[in-house]
Amino acid sequence: MSQNPRITKKFVLKATLINKTAFSISSGEGEFIDSIVVKDANDKPYIPASSLIGVLRSECNKFSPNKTAFDEFFGSGDKPSAICINDSSLNGNGEINLRNGVKIDPKTNIAKDGALYDFECVVAGSEFDFQAELTLRQMHDEKAILEIFDTLCCLIKNGFSIGAKTQNGLGKIKCKKLEICKFDFANDKNAFENYINAKFSNNYEPKFKPEKLSNTTEISLSLNIINSLLIGSTPDEKSDADVVSLNENGEFLLSGTSLKGALRNQALKIANTFAKGDLVDELFGYISEDKEQKAKKSRIKVSETQINKAVRKLHQRIKIDRFSAATIDGALFDSEAIFGSDDMLVNLEITNASKQELGLILLTLKDLCTGFLAVGGNKNIGRGVFSGEIEKVLHNGEDLSKDYERLNAFASEFSNGGAK
Fold first, then answer.
1. Pick the CATH number of 7-196 from 3.40.640.10, 1.10.10.10, 2.40.30.310, 3.30.70.1290
2. Where do the coiled-coil regions begin and end (predicted)?
């Protein structure tokens, strides 16, 4: 193959990206906030090119067996990258919301001291202008490079996840509009002039259509709030409540972080019963609290779910002195919970789930659907309890939704395999 670095073709990709769920790409700690989103010179949020190239490189690697071409495409060591991606700037307005989180002690089921944290995130529905440029040279294996480029284009078109807490439902990005222009300098005498003058035409169609990997398990649940639900959020200036329900763009949300945290604690209780507590760390991931700070990424993704037709109500409470049975001065507090809703569809996705892990998840979800597992705040007064059912189980491409014998076998595999 020729080692001539002469440019033969360029491909310019333009897209409009929209975040279907809130996302958080941090620029570090703020003065009063644990994590603030990255902003440009005009104090508007944007998606850094470094975050985009990192995510797209990781996803393309799953479909690219040609390592030499992959290294030429994304760059490696002394090899420059053939693809150049720009920062994606905000198109219009982008609202920033403040979310809180807390770490729950699985032994006591109450918040750990000093474990409260908050972080900024860009609210769902914001649009960003994406642009990338591929440079083909004579020394490149054109066919192999274009296969990777087609994969990248299709991944952008189909959507991807970016930023922090993507396994908890945040950072889901969809493509609203995608156009690709090919400039063939070797065969089109007007290509150079068109490129210099930015005369853009949508004249290239990606040929590769990546399919969903077969090593995933997808589970869908239909849930109803039995009484009330409180996924706590910081109140705005218009609210008099101490705590309000998480609300973005006028819609209440069941956050993936709250649901996944509750599922993890319940799974740990079940797993410990069968002396299989290690399964939980393998499935849900962990960060060790020792000096080594060992960590493992979660293999289970829980979606963020919109709650439709819910009604919010203010509930006032007071703290009572146990000795005198009188109210304590200054101990009045109130919370704004939500009541009632349409059916909520919650989606989970597990990568490389073993039979025992799937059995553990099914047992945990059974507790959620039958009201034995509460989610969110004020659980001690009956909030956060659901009724529901498992609607879909797609395991490694096979639909097991109605195959109750196989589903029960997974649960038996966990309980029998886990007992000592």
1. 2.40.30.310
2. none
